[in-house]
Specification:
CATH topology: Hypothetical Protein Pfu-838710-001
CATH architecture: Beta Barrel
Strand content: 35-45%
Shape: globular
Structural class: alpha+beta
Largest sheet: 8 strands, antiparallel, barrel
Number of helices: 4
CATH superfamily: Hypothetical Protein Pfu-838710-001
Low-confidence stretches: 204-216
Number of domains: 1
Helix content: 10-25%
Length: 216
């Protein structure tokens, strides 16, 4: 299991501003080259903010999702994002396709004694609070790491989603979706890592897997 803590701020900008900001970031040779990719998030929540999926604005909220990057089923991420006192706590683990299919099918008894904390947390939410897959969202994303820090600019250039998921293959790249971001607009998010004191990481028992950075 991996663990990250960060804060973030998001704004909607027009295409010209996006190009100008990207040009300024790229002009600094210390900054890392930008990465452009597509990511699909299968949320276990229907009420989400398309511009900020961390639950920001609602303290003590948790958002669970299954994430697929560039349609690669070799690295399927199960993610839990928690918003606590202005900070986003992100826990994630990678699961094989077989486990992912079982979760989506509602076959979850095995998660109880799996030993993975995120799987167990999701099991409790699915059995006690009856949460289930509510919406599928696609992001066309471009990410820049600033200098040698763990701070990032994240640009979502397109956002699409669907709530019509019953009976459909949620990994299908041709899944019918609706646009959620106005044309020629981009969501710009600045994510800043937070350094937790060592005693906090020890209490959280995140040890060698702690990464206090953003992992878009």
């Amino acid at each position: 299991m991996n663990y990250e803590v960060y804060s973030e701020e998001s704004n909607i900008i027009n295409h010209i501003d996006f190009m100008n900001i990207k040009k300024k970031i790229s002009a600094n040779m210390i900054n890392r080259e930008g990465k452009d990719f597509w990511i699909r998030k299968i949320y276990f929540n229907r009420e989400i903010n398309y511009l900020n999926d961390s639950g920001k604005g609602n303290n003590n909220s948790d958002i669970y999702s299954i994430n697929i990057k560039d349609n690669s089923l070799d690295f399927i991420m199960l993610e839990k994002k928690s918003y606590r006192e202005g900070l986003i706590h992100k826990n994630y683990t990678y699961i094989p396709r077989e486990q992912c299919d079982s979760i989506l099918a509602g076959d979850i008894c095995w998660m109880k004694d799996n030993g993975n904390h995120i799987l167990y947390d999701l099991y409790l939410q699915m059995t006690i609070n009856k949460i289930k897959v509510g919406v599928v969202v696609d992001y066309q994303r471009e990410v820049y790491r600033l200098n040698i820090s763990d701070n990032y600019f994240v640009f979502d250039k397109a956002i699409k989603s669907t709530y019509d998921i019953e009976g459909y293959d949620l990994f299908d790249t041709e899944l019918q979706m609706s646009d959620r971001l106005e044309k020629n607009k981009t969501v710009m998010t600045y994510r800043q890592s937070v350094n937790l004191p060592r005693f906090v990481t020890n209490v959280l028992q995140i040890g060698e897997n702690v990464r206090l950075v953003q992992n878009a």
